[in-house]
Amino acid sequence: MIANLVLTFEEPVNILKASTKNVGGVAKGDMILEFKKDSAKKEAMKAYLKEHGIEIEESVDYVDT
What we know:
Radius of gyration: 13 Å
């Protein structure tokens, strides 16, 4: 999904953290993504993820521990 996002919008996305597991044959998990700060495409990219069934939540204070 992230690869398709990058190809569709021709803009990089950083995966800061990810954890996934197989639950009944379905991949479930969390990812923390970083979009370019000055991106004019950020809202469209978030809408693309939602349209493809990805739940998103914005965090402005992410700190890796």
